[in-house]
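Subgroup meeting minutes
Present: P.N., E.W., G.H.
Scribe: E.W.

1. P.N. recapped why we're keeping a running log of single-chain structure predictions: easier to compare across weeks, and new members can see raw inputs and outputs side by side.
2. G.H. added today's entry (86 aa).
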Amino acid sequence: MLTLPCPHCGPRDETEFGYGGEAGIAYPERPADLDDAAWAEYLFLRANPRGWFTERWVHRAGCRQWFTVRRHTVTNQVEPTMEEAR
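Output recorded in log:
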């Protein structure tokens, strides 16, 4: 079972959280100018690395705050982020 370090509530079981996907995805500067293929790429295509990955989570069953973690996709080891260090 994965344990996530909520920066507001402390370490909690993953069942309390919702996955928000890859962190750091920039919204298109002019989305109306994108064709269907480019818009689909923005919405659905994400990295799927084997190793460290930065992702967003929301603490649904707790403080309801969004936060960012770095997680190793093979071992599920979680590293502190700058947001957690506050």
